[in-house]
Amino acid sequence: MKETVVQKNKENTILSDKFDMFFNNRSENLEAIIDIKKHNLSGTLKNFIYPVSSWPVILENETSNKLSELSVILPELIYQIPELYFDNDISSIAHFYFNGNEELAQYAMMCHNKKIEVSCRLDLTLTDSGFKILEINAGSSIGGWQLDDFEGIVRESHDILKNTQNDFKFTSIQSTYLNFLIDKTLQYVKEIKNEINVFVIVGNNAEIDSQGEKDIFFDNLLKQKLTERGMSGSVHIGKASLLKMIRGDLYLNNKRIHSVLNMDYALKNITPELFRAHIMGSVYFPDHLGTPILGDKRNLAILRELALSGKFDSKNNELILNSIPWTVVINNDKVTFKEQEHNLLRLLKEQKDQFVIKIANGCMGDSVFIGKFLSATEWEKAIEVSIGKEAYIAQEFSDSIDFIAPNISNQWTQHKLIWGSFGFGNTYGGVITRMVDVEIDDGIINSARGAVLGMVYECID
């Protein structure tokens, strides 16, 4: 379809103030969406099913610095919740996070107290009042770090990016994650010489048969990074039950395993051998029993409550209150919203367009209800669901400002954006975007629901 551009607010585009520079130097044949079949992509990206924009998203340095700050500091603050909010009381932690299972909570806190750094991704929206954090995801299942191949395609598609590489910096999430994985394994695991072997947990034999004994894509990435350090190693996949403790270390047959990753959000099985190896420091296991605490969406409500009580230093209290929208755990209690006291359920019913309801432990936009996009009847059903057995939060709706971007028909139209910003310990890992045309926006901006991915570059002044 012929390319068209919306002129209104043209300066507020995904290209920042570099719109004319990129648009006037574009290729005549540039398509809006990368055609996967035309490119030699690595591993699982060969069958990537989600649309990726051929156009870059350009960030100003100030915006990039803000994402970096949030992505590093917020996960650090969440780590403090068990102590600051629950006073490390196992019974309270069990009731809140583990359905009252105190034994599980005790084991989880043993893991949590080892203070193992894990991967995190903040999902944010940029509003008229700055970035707002919608959720914080933790652990190896967060996804989005494997997309570097698309950066090369985007760069090759634009002469501006090819000829001015020093002016537009791309932070490789993939490279940052691999270095983080190696660094943390070396930090936490005893007696590593010059080899690191990683085991990726999968759930059933069908998955193993479809992938072989190794995840080739991940294996190649790891080998490359290890070679740069004069080390060796490999990636293996299988069920957790294949791992055995031998003389205090974790083995797959005769191969010592130094790091174990669980990249399946739904997989919860952790074997006694893996638990012991983690506690003993024989393996780096970022997806331990305590990690679900970090990814619970109710933490946003707790952080705001702690900040309002002055539990952090003044800078972090302000950061929390400015970046996390009003969020509460849903129950039939009184709440304060915009300095007025309300019954929460009545408030939700009467002001539905101002709120979002989300399940506390969910992913890919599941069990998310946005009031302004639902009828009154649909919204009341969502409220009923939220006071059932599963835990839910209510959050003030944070509307993305509009960005002009190309839609899948190659028309430059208004879009809403979600920013997926990565933090790996104290290192900022970069950001990707998900974009949706306002004409088809239902409030849930997720790749699984048709949003277009965008590769992000920082403009270096």
Contiguous low-pLDDT stretches (5 residues minimum) are: 209-213
| Class by SSE composition | alpha+beta
Calculate the terminal CA-CA distance, rounded to whole Å. 35 Å
- In total, how many beta strands? 21
Describe the biggest sheet?
9 strands, mixed
Q: How much helix, percentage-wise, in residues?
A: 25-40%
Q: Whole-number average pLDDT?
A: 91
What count of domains describes the coordinates? 3
State the helix count.
16
Shape category: globular
Radius of gyration: 23 Å
**What is the strand content?**
15-25%
Summarize this entry quickly:
The protein is of the alpha+beta class. The chain has helices at 19-23, 61-79, 81-84, 90-97, 102-112, 148-156, 159-163, 173-188, 205-211, 216-228, 272-280, 291-295, 298-308, 314-323, 344-350, 376-386, and strands at 4-5, 57-59, 119-127, 130-138, 168-169, 195-201, 232-238, 243-246, 249-252, 255-256, 259-262, 327-329, 334-337, 340-343, 355-359, 368-370, 392-396, 403-406, 411-424, 427-437, 452-459. It has 3 domains: 1-173 and 291-325 and 398-461, no CATH class; 190-283, no CATH class; 326-396, no CATH class.
